[in-house]
Amino acid sequence: MPLQRLHWPELEALSINVYLRRDDAISPLYSGNKFYKLYYNFRHATTQGADAIVSFGGNYSNHLYSLAAMGQELGIQTIGIVRGYESAKLSPTLEDAKNFGMKLYFLGKKAYKFKDISELLPILNKKYGGVYIVPEGGENLAGVRGCMAMGTAIDKQMFNLLGDSAYTLCCAVGTGSTFAGLIASSPRAQCLGITVLKGKDTISPKVTRWLSLIGKGARSNWSLNAEYHHGGYAKVTPQLLEFMSSIESLNTIKLDPVYTAKLLWAIKELATAGYWNTNNRETSQSTHIVAVHSGGLQGRRGFDLT
Ligand SMILES: *Cc1c(COP(=O)(O)O)cnc(C)c1O
């Protein structure tokens, strides 16, 4: 997927170049990081002879949406376990997923918290045959491995563009599995993850664990920043939405308020605070920043956007 140099006067004034890696352009249906995270999961499900793939998510889940779309394309039955109770009207995300052929089941918040499908599983197995389970958000080793393809490709693109120069690779972080894949596959980059969830840091230990499971436990070229969540997961402020729309119109791109808008906001805040200035030893050589556009544009429908 192409690297698009962003037109961004505020950062250009600081001699900082931002390149957007356009993984949102993979497909309108299974765009962004979810495609990479699901790739090996589909392969494993197929080689294991599973009859259906089941996974979890909320009403606006990019993950369930992508799973449903890929399942339709590959001719594999998908099942979505949705957090909460079924309401009379499905969200546009779930309506689409259903039209892609996904079967939906709803799980009360408490049972969902523990992903307790002990009662549901025998029913699913009876109805659909053997099911292959993917954790919420595609957070498993197959998911992390899939995301390594992204980091490898970006590293090649940056080498073609700038030779050996250092760069910072930034992405929005939910579960951290995309971030782990990127770190594992881009040893030349300084990796910076922008957390979109509020609360204590449960992500660093997970990233460390994924890295060691793929034999890259020694990697230390990464850090997480949790200061730009804007109040928590899927929470937005008028300032964020205004910023998002200005970047969109400057560059003829679309962003989503949950992940990529917060990512670019964080880059702007860090840049103006001097994070990439020449006195910061960690980042001084890299005024080149790659921001991963991890897709998720269908999730815009959960917000009142023009
Ligand atoms: C799911 C998602 C993320 C977060 O990915 P993790 O691997 O869970 O950290 C980032 N951006 C978008 C658009 C997503 O849909």
Overview of the structural elements:
With 306 residues, the chain is of the alpha/beta class. Helices cover 40% and strands 17% of the residues. It has helices at residues 9-12, 33-47, 62-74, 92-99, 109-113, 120-128, 141-162, 177-185, 203-213, 238-251, 260-272, and strands at 3-5, 17-21, 52-57, 77-83, 103-107, 131-133, 167-173, 189-195, 222-225, 288-292. A six-stranded mixed β-sheet has the order 1-2-10-7-8-9. β4 (77-83), α4 (92-99) and β5 form a beta-alpha-beta unit. α2 (33-47) crosses α3 (62-74), α7 packs across α8 and α8 (177-185) crosses α9 (203-213). The longest helix is centred in the middle third of the chain and has 22 residues, at 141-162. The radius of gyration is 19 Å and the shape is globular. 44% of the residues are buried. The mean pLDDT is 94. The protein binds pyridoxal-5'-phosphate (PLP). Pyridoxal-5'-phosphate binds next to α2, β7 and α8.
Brief characterization of the structure:
With 306 residues, this protein is α/β, with parallel strands linked by helices. The protein contains 11 helices and 10 strands.
